[in-house]
Design goal:
9 helices, alpha/beta, 8 strands, eight-stranded mixed β-sheet, binds adenosine monophosphate, single chain, Rossmann fold
Length: 201
């Protein structure tokens, strides 16, 4: 297998657990897979919801975790000692700096189920890809069809002629947490793996 240049993966996901236990389980599975692959998790530093679950999974697998959190959100973190468990904590002045630091620190991006904050993060990273600002792989974790409304919207935009560089926009869409790391490895190094990529928008 070819050597893979990846060292870190940024995960965007909900700060809430959602109302289906499978979302939390999938986040923890992904976290563990990141640790087991020897990759560093880069994420928003939260200890709640899917954010907490993915970090917990990576730490349980002995992986390294970088949390990047704006100062005002630290106050919302009831358990500052939980933040202390991360092996790297970056405190930023605002959301803009946080998102940029997350972008710079990661070689690939994964979006799990989440809410408005998660949506904004993945859209921004897709926008930068469309504008040629980066070529880092973007994976949409479409568990139980969670992101179908977004993929339908992107298809609709394309049909209506508003997506001009579609090849740059397309996130890799996978349907289970086990497929995420292989999909990233394949995207980063085409000869490096044998992941089944379900769909590429
Ligand atoms: P959402 O998908 O709306 O839950 O938003 C996820 C995003 O919420 C994260 O990436 C953060 O920007 C933000 N966020 C909300 N609560 C927290 C928290 N307690 N710690 C860190 N980030 C948080």
């Amino acid at each position: 297998m070819a050597t893979n240049p990846l060292t870190s993966v940024c995960v965007y996901c909900g700060s809430s657990p959602g109302n289906d236990a499978e979302y939390m389980a999938a986040a923890e599975t992904l976290g563990r897979a990141i640790g087991e692959a020897g990759l560093r998790l880069v994420y928003g530093g939260g200890t709640k919801g899917l954010m907490g679950a993915v970090a917990e999974g990576t730490m349980q697998a002995g992986g390294k975790v970088t949390g990047i959190i704006p100062r005002f959100l630290m106050e919302k973190e009831a358990t500052e000692s939980a933040l202390g468990r991360l092996d790297e904590l970056v405190v930023t002045e605002d959301m803009h700096e946080r998102k940029h630091r997350m972008f710079e620190a990661a070689d690939a991006f994964v979006t799990l189920p989440g809410g408005i904050g998660t949506l904004e993060e993945v859209i921004e990273i897709m926008t930068w890809a469309q504008l040629g600002q980066h070529t880092k792989p973007i994976v949409l974790a479409n568990f139980k069809g969670f992101w179908n409304p977004l993929t339908i919207l992107i298809d609709h935009m394309r049909e209506c002629g508003f997506i001009h560089t579609g090849h740059r926009v397309g996130p890799i869409v996978v349907d289970s947490p086990e497929k995420i790391i292989p999909a990233i490895m394949d995207a980063a190094e085409p000869k490096g793996g044998d992941a089944e990529i379900i769909e590429r928008l």
